[in-house]
Amino acid sequence: MAVIVAKIARLDYPREWPQLMPALLSELRSGGAEQRALLVLSHVIKSLSSKRLAGDRKLFQELTANIYPFLYQQWTVHTNAAIAQISFGDDKCVHTLEKASLLLKCLYKLTVYGFVKLHESSEAASFLHSIFGHTKTMLEQRKTVKAIHGVTEMLEKFIMKMTKVQATVLSDHPFSYIDLLQPTLELTYYYIFVPDNEAFLFESFLILCLNRLKTIVQTLEFRQGKQRESCSSKLFDAQANELEIRTAQAVEIKKEFFNETVLNVICRKLITHYFLLTPQDLALWDSDPETFYINESAENWKYSLRVSIEKIFKRSF
Question: pTM of the entire structure?
Answer without folding.
Answer: 0.89
